[in-house]
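Second opinion, please. Please look over this fold, written as tokens:

===
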Amino acid sequence: MQIKKRPLLQLLSYLFILSQLFLFSYADVGTAAQYSPPYLPTACYGDDQSHFPSSNLFAAAGDGIWDNGASCGRQYLVRCISASQPGTCVTDQTVQVKIVDYAPTAQSPPSAQTATIVLSETAFAGITNKPVGSINIEFQQ
């Protein structure tokens, strides 16, 4: 009895096994800046402070994630991946922030323009060791 070779089936099997060895990330990459008080009023909630998390881990959305205001209330996991100054990022530290404002209209100006997301002072300090204008981040909803 002769065994028939099925090269296509073998190839698909190898590809499936190989794909299981790699982890896929569904995160995006962008930039983050920080902003300072005053934080009110916001584009999302006006003067209503009750929408701010008690942890002070919140952010203003840049144009890239604003989505015509649909980002209000969304929560993002944010991690610093690099910066212009070595040693800026806190290794393996992630913060979860809630979007409460639109960065271009925020009450106080961000430390850098055109950031993907502008973090509160508390959130920015949670993932960085140094005050800098902006950092490169990985973020996911």
Q: What stands out?
A: The two ends are 56 Å apart (CA to CA).
